[in-house]
C-alpha cells in the first residue's frame, strides 16, 4: 500500500547530478589556470542553475502536496465532494487516488446514514404510540407526533422531568394510568436506552392499552353481529316464505304432504337456530374444568362408539387428569371437522393419543387442509357453508382452561391437517 512519500526519487536524482557537476567543475578548475573572474563567473552560473532547478521542483512538489492537503482538509470539514486530479509524481499520485476512493466511500456512507435517519424518523412519527428520548439530565430531546398530540398537554404544566418520574413511581405491572381530558386511560410503559453521538439516552414508549382493547372488542362485536344477523336471516327467510305459502292455501284444497313437508322445514330451521344459539351460549358460559383421573381405555371406547370408523392409537400411560366432559366435547368438534373435511367416504381419520407427559390428542385427516391457519381459530370464522365458526374456538378455550394449547398445521408429506390438543403437563 502506497503511503505519503517521505523519499522523493526526483529530488535524490537532482542532488546526484549536482554533486557530479560540482566534481566536474572542481576538476576543471584544478587542472586549468583560469583567471579569477572566470572562476567566479563559473561558480555563479553553477549556483544559479542549481537554484533555478531546485525552485522549479519545489514549486511543483508544493503544488502536488497542496492537492493532498486540500483533500484531507475537506474530509476533516466533512466535505466529501472534492476529488484530486492526477499528479506527476507516481507515488504521490497513488496517495491522491486512495484519498479519492476514501472520499467516495465516506460520501456513500454519509448518504446511507442520512437515508436511514430519515426512514427511522418517519417510522417513529407514524407509530401509534408515544415515544420520548431523554438525556441524562432528564431533558426531553425528541418526541413523536403522537406524544406531542396526546401527552404533551398532560405534562406541560408539571414539566417533563417531574412527570416522567411520577409515571415511573406509579408504574404497576408495566402499566400506568394517565388522566387525559378528565378520562383515565391505561398505557403500557416500556423503557430502553440508546446512544446519540456516543452519549447514553433513555427511551420511553407509552402504548395506549385501553384503546387497543376497545378496537379489538369493537371488531369482535361487529363480527359477532354479522354472524348472528346472517344466521338469523338465513333461518327466518325460508320460514317466512313457507308460512306465507301455506297461509295462501288455507282457503283452498291442499295436500297434507305439502303441509307436512313445509312444517318439517320450519321445524328444521328453528332447530338449527336453537342449536346455533346453544353453541354460542356454551362458549360464553364455559365453566372451569373439573379435573379428574380418566381411564383412557374407557375414554377411547366412548369415542369409538360415537365414531366407529375412527382409527385410534395410544402411547404412554393408561390414565390422565382432565375434565372428561369438556375434553370429550372438544374432541368431538375436532373429529367432526376431520370427517367433514374428508374428500370421500374411504378417507381415514386417525386419533393418536400421547400420555408420556400429560395428555396430547392428535386428530389427523386426509382432507384439503387449512386454507388459512392464522384465521382458523378466530371466533366466528368459518369456511363451511353450514359452519358457525365455534368448533376450533371452543376446543382452544377448553385447552387453555386446562393450561394447555391447541396447535394447527397442515401435513407436509401428504394431504390433510393435524390438530393437536395438548393438556396440562403435555410436551
Automatic annotation (TrEMBL):
The keyword Transmembrane applies. SMART domains: HATPase_c (SM00387). Keywords: Coiled coil, Membrane, Transmembrane, Transmembrane helix. Gene3D superfamilies: 1.10.287.130, Histidine kinase-like ATPase, C-terminal domain (3.30.565.10). One of its GO terms (molecular function) is phosphorelay sensor kinase activity. It comes from the Bacteria. It holds the Pfam family HATPase_c. The chain crosses the membrane at residues 12-31, 37-55. The keyword Repeat does not apply. Residues 227-427 form the Histidine kinase domain. This is Histidine kinase domain-containing protein. It comes from Veronia pacifica. The lineage of its organism: Bacteria, Pseudomonadati, Pseudomonadota, Gammaproteobacteria, Vibrionales.
Amino acid at each position: 500500500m502506497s503511503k505519503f512519500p517521505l523519499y522523493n526519487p526526483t529530488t535524490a536524482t537532482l542532488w546526484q547530478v549536482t554533486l557530479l557537476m560540482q566534481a566536474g567543475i572542481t576538476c576543471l578548475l584544478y587542472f586549468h589556470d583560469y583567471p579569477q573572474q572566470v572562476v567566479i563567473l563559473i561558480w555563479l552560473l553553477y549556483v544559479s542553475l542549481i537554484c533555478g532547478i531546485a525552485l522549479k521542483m519545489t514549486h511543483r512538489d508544493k503544488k502536488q502536496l497542496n492537492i493532498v492537503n486540500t483533500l484531507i482538509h475537506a474530509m476533516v470539514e466533512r466535505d466529501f465532494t472534492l476529488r484530486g486530479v492526477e499528479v506527476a509524481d507516481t507515488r504521490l499520485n497513488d496517495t491522491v487516488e486512495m484519498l479519492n476512493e476514501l472520499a467516495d466511500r465516506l460520501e456513500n456512507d454519509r448518504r446511507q446514514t442520512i437515508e436511514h435517519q430519515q426512514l427511522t424518523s418517519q417510522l417513529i412519527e407514524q407509530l401509534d404510540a408515544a415515544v420520548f428520548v431523554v438525556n441524562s439530565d432528564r431533558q426531553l430531546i425528541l418526541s413523536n407526533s403522537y406524544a406531542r398530540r396526546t401527552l404533551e398537554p398532560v405534562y406541560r404544566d408539571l414539566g417533563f422531568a417531574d412527570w416522567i418520574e411520577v409515571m415511573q413511581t406509579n408504574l404497576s405491572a408495566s402499566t400506568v394510568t394517565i388522566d387525559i381530558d378528565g378520562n383515565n386511560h391505561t398505557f403500557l410503559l416500556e423503557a430502553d436506552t440508546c446512544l446519540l453521538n456516543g452519549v447514553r439516552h433513555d427511551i420511553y414508549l407509552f402504548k395506549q392499552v385501553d384503546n387497543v382493547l376497545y378496537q379489538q372488542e369493537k371488531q369482535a362485536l361487529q363480527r359477532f353481529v354479522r354472524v348472528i344477523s346472517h344466521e338469523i336471516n338465513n333461518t327466518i327467510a325460508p320460514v317466512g316464505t313457507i308460512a306465507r305459502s301455506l297461509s295462501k292455501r288455507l282457503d283452498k284444497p291442499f295436500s297434507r304432504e305439502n303441509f307436512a313437508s313445509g312444517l318439517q322445514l320450519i321445524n328444521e330451521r328453528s332447530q338449527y337456530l336453537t342449536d346455533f344459539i346453544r353453541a354460542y351460549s356454551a362458549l360464553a358460559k364455559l365453566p372451569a374444568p373439573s379435573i379428574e383421573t380418566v381411564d383412557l381405555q374407557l375414554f377411547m371406547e366412548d369415542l369409538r362408539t360415537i365414531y366407529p370408523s375412527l382409527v385410534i392409537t395410544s402411547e404412554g400411560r393408561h390414565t390422565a387428569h382432565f375434565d372428561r366432559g369438556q375434553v370429550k366435547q372438544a374432541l368431538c368438534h375436532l373429529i367432526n371437522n376431520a370427517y367433514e373435511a374428508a374428500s370421500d367416504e374411504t378417507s381415514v381419520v386417525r386419533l393418536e393419543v400421547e400420555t408420556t407427559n400429560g395428555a396430547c390428542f392428535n386428530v389427523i385427516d386426509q382432507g384439503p387442509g387449512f386454507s388459512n391457519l392464522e384465521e382458523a381459530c378466530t371466533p366466528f370464522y368459518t369456511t363451511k357453508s353450514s359452519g358457525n365458526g365455534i368448533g376450533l374456538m371452543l376446543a382452544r378455550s377448553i385447552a387453555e382452561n386446562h393450561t394447555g394449547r391447541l396447535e394447527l398445521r397442515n401435513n407436509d408429506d401428504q394431504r390433510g391437517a393435524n390438530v393437536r390438543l395438548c393438556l396440562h403437563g403435555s410436551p
